[in-house]
Amino acid sequence: MKAMILAAGYGTRLRPITYTMPKPMVPLAGRPLIAHLVDFIAAAGVRDIVVNLHHFPAIIEQYLRKTFANIDFHFSHEPMLLGTGGGVRKVRLLLERDEDFFLLNGDTYESPKFDALRNARRERDSISAMTLRHPPQGDRYTAVWTEKGTINGFGQGHGEALMFSGSHCVSSRIFRYIPDRDASDLTGDVYQPLVATGQESIASIVDDDPMWFDIGTPQRYLTASRALGRMIGKSVIEGDVRDSVVWDNCYIGRGVTLESCIVGHGVEIRAPLQLKSAIICRDDPAIPRDPSYRFENGLAIACI
Questions:
Q1: Hey, CA dihedral for 257, 263, 269, 271, is it positive or negative?
Q2: Are 114 and 104 contacting, i.e. CB atoms less than 8 angstroms apart?
Q3: Contact of 76 with 90, CB cutoff 8 Å
Q4: 288 and 153: one domain?
Q5: What is the C-alpha separation between 205 and 124, in angstroms, rounded?
Q6: Measured in whole angstroms, how far is the alpha carbon of residue 132 from the centre of its chain?
Q7: Omega before 285 cis (within 30°)?
Q8: Which residues in 29-63 are b (16+ Cβ under 10 Å) and which e?
Q9: pLDDT tier at 56, thresholds 50, 70, 90
Q10: Is the pTM of this model over 0.90?
Q11: Looking at the DSSP assignment, which residues form a beta bridge with residue 2?
Q12: Number of domains composing the chain
């Protein structure tokens, strides 16, 4: 059995940091997010992993090959983003020979209940099984409606309205239904029509693991970092750093006060500075001169 990690996105909400690095390489507890996902997959006994790539693909590919010698990686390069359906369709030859495969979002820290997902799908012979969870209070999400372990609607339905947590077990029959075009969305173009017509069923499991984090925004990334620990990387801290994440190879000098900040790799702050709720990274030609950013002393700073 194989697994696929969807890792091709731009990570736009973590800019300006993600102008110079891919979002799956953002560190959590001292390791890139994607490393945790590979660990979770490997712990489930899966050694064949497909990863789709678009934004800084070489950084992800080189890191994974160097770090996980016991994993057989297959990298799918997308010159243009293909969406979740198109990304899966592009690697059909790798995935269609098995009964099913696991599919994980590359921007979510999640340790899926792989056995439960697979069992839920196979017991009902469903086209897919999705992991759902109760949404955080006040969070905006697309409701996935489920009743008695079967999903009956996206956005509208009956039973209990939950949110998708980022992992599926997908039947290889899926390739019958993915549109015959380059780009498509697995939920909108495949799941929703199948549920609406009753042509196939989609199973669900509910997992409210508290150690689940969507790191799509700076605030959510900080929340995940607080919970997982090791917020300070291999850096020199002489200033006052509070409730902040500092990545590797940074220098935070005396007279610097940072609160609830995200500090990217290699940042040096030597002059006195006070910042609260900001992303700080090294300036780079790839970062546009956006008026919402502040540029000084070789740094790009964005409020969050």
A1: negative
A2: no
A3: yes
A4: no
A5: 12
A6: 16
A7: no
A8: eeebbbbbbbebbeebebebbbbbbbbbbebbbeb
A9: very high
A10: yes
A11: 48, 101
A12: 2
Mean pLDDT, residues 136-143 taken together: 77
Compute the average pLDDT of residues 247-270: 96
Listed in sequence order, the residues at least 6 apart from 136 whose beta carbon sits closer than 8 Å to its beta carbon are none
Flag whether 67 is in a domain: yes
pLDDT digits 0-9 by tens, 146-202: 999 999 999 888 999 999 999 999 999 999 999 999 999 999 999 999 999 999 999
The token duo for 241 is: 């750093």
Q: Any residues with CB less than 8 A from the CB of 46 and at least 6 apart, and which?
A: 1, 2, 3, 102, 114
CB 189 within 8 A of CB 174: no
Compute how many other C-beta atoms are within 10 angstroms of the C-beta atom of residue 185.
16
In a domain, 222, yes or no: no
How far apart CA 131 and CA 129 sit, in angstroms, is 7
- In this structure, the answer to whether residues 30 and 138 fall within a common structural domain is yes
Same domain, 93 and 120: yes
Tokens in use for 17?
């940091």
- Shared domain check, 80 and 35: yes
* Type of residue found at 292: S
Please give the residue range of the domain that contains residue 7.
2-214
